[in-house]
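idk why but the lab printer keeps eating my pages so im just putting this in chat instead. protein + 1,3-dihydroxyacetonephosphate:
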Amino acid sequence: MLVSAKEMLNKARQGKYAVGQFNINNLEWTKAILLTAQENNSPVILGVSEGAAKYMGGFDTVVGMVNGLLKGLNITVPVALHIDHGSYDGAIKAMEAGFSSIMFDGSHYPFEENIAKTKEIVELAHSKGISVEAEVGSIGGEEDGVVGAGEVADPQECKAISELGIDFLAAGIGNIHGKYPENWAGLNFEVLGKINEATGDMPLVLHGGSGIPEEMIKEAISLGVAKINVNTECQVVFAEATRKYIEEGKDLQGKGFDPRKLLAPGVDAIKECVKEKMELFGSINQA
Ligand code: 13P
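predcted complex ->
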C-alpha cells in the first residue's frame, strides 16, 4: 500500500540520512526502482512530473501501475507516489487519482500567491492523509519545458511557508536540474544553514540530485536535507546501457529484439544507479 512521505522523511531527518525520490518514466523504470528499494530494505519515493504522467497515459494509469506492482512484486518497504513540481490543478488531480504525496510548486508565483495556494493545497491534502512539499526559490535548469533561473531561496520566506503546515520544503540553494555545467559554483551551504535554522526540524528537499559530488550530498544531509531527487542520472545510464546493447549487435542475435531482452541492460543500469544513491544517502535498511 502506498504511504504518505511524511513519516519516512521525519524519520530520515532525525536519523541524519535522506530518502531518494527517483522519477519514473514507464513500467521498466518503476519496477527497477521498487525492486531495488525492496532488495535494500530502503524507503523510496517515486517521483512523477506532470509531463511523465501524461506520457504514461495519465495519473490513473500511473496509480494503477504502481499499486499493481506493489502487490505483484510483494513490495513491503514504505513507498510514496509523489507528484513532482505539480501545478495547482495538477496536484489536485493527482490527489484525486490516488497519489500519496504532492509537490505543489508555486515558486514561480509572487510569494504571497505561493503562500495562499500552498495553504489551500495543504488543507485539501491533509484532509486525505497526503503529504505536501512546497517550493521557495525556483530550481535552475530545465524540466519538462519549465525553465527555472536557479534562485537561492530567502530563509525568511522558507520560514513563512514552513509555518503553513507543509510536510517538507524544497528550497533553491544553487542546485539545478539536469547535468551540472563545468563552471557550476556548487551548493550554497551558507544559505542552506540559514534555511535549516529558520525552519526548525522541517525535512528539506534537494532537487537536481544527479551529478552532485558525494561530499556535498553528505554536507547537505548534515544541514537538514532528508529527501534528494534523482532523475537525469537514471536516464543517462539507461540510455548508455541500451546503446551498448544495440551497438554490440545483440538485438540482431537470436531473439535479442525481444523488448524484454532489449530493455534488460537499461533496467539493470537503473537498479545499480538507484542502489548507489541509496548507499550514499544512507537509506539502506531504514525501511
Ligand atoms: P535531476 O534530473 O537533475 O536528477 O533532478 C531531478 C529532480 O530534481 C526532480 O524534481
